[in-house]
Amino acid sequence: MTRKSFFLIIVAFLLFIVMAVNVSAGTTIAISKIIINSSVTPIMPGDSFSVSVEASSSDSEQMYYKFYYCPNYGTSDYETSEWVVVKDYSTAKTAAYSVPSSGNYIVVVRAVTDPANEPDALPIIGGLVSVGGDSGQVNIADFNSSATPSLKAGESVNFFLNASTPDNSQIYYKFYSCGNYGTYSYPTSTWEIMQEYSTANTCSHAFSNPGNYVVVARAVTDPANEPAALPIIGTNVAVGASESSSVNYKIVDTGQTKTYGNTSEISPPAAGQAFSGQDSQIQGNQPSYKNNGDGTITDLNTGLVWVQERGNRISWDDAVSGASSCRVGGYSDWRMPTIKELYSLIKFSGVNGPDNMVTTGFTPFIDTNYFGFVYGSGIGSERVIDCQDWSATAYVTTTMHNNATIFGVNFADGRIKGYPKYEPSSGETVGKLLYVRYVRGNPEYGKNSFQANSDSTVSDLATGLMWSKDDSRQGMNWADALAWVQAQNAANYLGHNDWRLPNAKELQSIVDYTRSPSTTNSPAIDINYFNSTAITNEAGQSDYPYIWTGTVLLDGGPSPSGVYISFGRAIGYVNGSWIDVHGAGSQKSDIMAGNPANYPNGRGPQGDAVRITNYVRLVRDI
Predict the structure, then answer these.
(1) pLDDT for 446 beyond 70
(2) Structural domains in the chain, sorted by start
(3) Rounded to two decimals, what is the model's pTM?
(4) How many angstroms separate the CA atoms of 529 and 412, rounded?
(5) How many angstroms separate the Cα of 327 from the Cα of each of 295, 300, 307, 324, 360?
(6) pLDDT, tens digit (0-9, with 9 covering 90-100), for 204-232
(7) Whole-angstrom Cα distance, residue 31 to residue 237?
(8) Which end of the chain is more exposed for a tag (fewer CB within 10 A), N or C?
(9) pLDDT (0 to 100) of residue 73
């Protein structure tokens, strides 16, 4: 989000100026105070006044501050006015301002730990300064917040606004807030009045849900006649999960940055247009890693620590037993990653090339700036995509022709599949060889904490996501799925208008790998909380649908295909019959539009069923 576009949004929504919160890349920044100080009142053109700020970060990193302003607030010229930088990023917490002419100015300060990498939820604080004002002008001197980087949902935070007028008129104060700052949902989010106009210049409030909030205070002498240049100032609150509902399962964004139609890349569609609302248009927790210099990599979002190098192919049994003897980085608590832990590393900036025997046109689905990766040899029968990683998660039933199956991630072609534990022709005597990457830290990662709500929604307190209890109850192609989400928002479905098509990682987070149609007669989802439409699959079995995501997989061409999660059997056509080839809970992709009848034997080497009309389950941020 650019600086100008941020403030255009602010003008469009109740003419406010805010400070926002950063809960990004593992760091939370809290700005607790802004002070606007002048030796004269009112401030006149050419007079000097100072702006100071207090901020801190959750990991006590060095803070950097940038000071700037924009003129013409409260007029039609504001939207096109240029922002003036008073002091660029430095460690100085105070800057001296002086403006040349009378008018209303918005003064703003940014506070970050890394000026080269500003987050989407940009931590800024600001307010109105009037120059050459009349005797009734409200002058805001400072705004304070008791919020700290460790603030949790349900805990009270206090706000204090100090304002005055030259003629000592009575001032009335109003406090309000808005969530979802820094997300796609922010422009349509609802403002909550925390305290209506009163003479109290303090407000105490407890935010019930974790997230990034903007908090704004107004100060006027006549609440019934608010001026065009509304005296307002804002500060931030970064609200973490409460101790009873910690967000220990932070979903890392897919890293997708381009937008697609049915057959090719397209320009980003505007809201309401076809293909609007896909993965790349919704910014989540952006991938962020730290090389620890000891052969380990820390994921700054999830708190998981990974072995950097890939090692050699080994059997699943050897991979499991080898974790206890791993001493990379001097640690002795390494473990096999679950499929949800392993999938947190996937990046859908990857590309599948046109020929599986050469790497030309391929881009890995993992960040190779941090993690070791090697393609298959492309020699003999080994394809370049034959380089999968084991997880610790076994399929609760079998795939193919009664093969014991382990889920894994293919960072060469961007999929979760169930892989045979043993070489199929060995009679379960020779283990299949895949790669393994051990993990440590955050043992709660991948564990859901569902809460059934009274409005047919389900909150996952572990991820901070809210889901529709029901799926769409009908299949549709990918473009229609995106349009269907927009229609639900227009109808304020289940009381919300900020639903979206989940990305691949969000949707995979609610898979229950202890369930399958064959073993529990259910989809691979917690049926205590979610309803799923039953279907009859290609083999004539009672089954459950594939569910679309907003993520696109570039497949051999490269051609875009829509990513789905299989909550029922992952059906494929092999040796003349339809069977479960990769397991309930796998992630693959489907053709976005067309007629499934044109693919009577599926597609790809395992004859993956082509359905095209897949189902939808809605998600939003809590």
Answers:
(1) yes
(2) 3-244 (2.60.40.10), 471-621 (no CATH)
(3) 0.66
(4) 34
(5) 10, 22, 10, 8, 36
(6) 998 877 677 888 889 999 999 888 777 77
(7) 8
(8) N
(9) 85
